[in-house]
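Database export, one record per block. Field names are fixed; values are copied verbatim from the stored entry.
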Amino acid sequence: MKFTVDQNLCIGCEACEGISPEVFTFPNDKSQVKLDPVPPSLQESALKAEANCPVEAISHTS
C-alpha cells in the first residue's frame, strides 16, 4: 500500500506521527511518509492515521 500526504492540506498537527511513527515523520512542519510502499505489518496503523487526520491530508492506494 502506498500512502501520500497532501502538503497543501497538512496543518502539521502531528496526529499521524503519534498514531503511526514508523510510517510518518515531520522534518519541516509538514507530515511526510517514510516508507514507500508501507509494509503489510504497518498498514493498519497507517490507515488509522489516515482516518484520524483532521484535514484529510493523507490518502492511500493499494
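Remark 1: The CA atoms of residues 50 and 58 lie 5 Å apart.
Remark 2: The two ends are 4 Å apart (CA to CA).
End of record.
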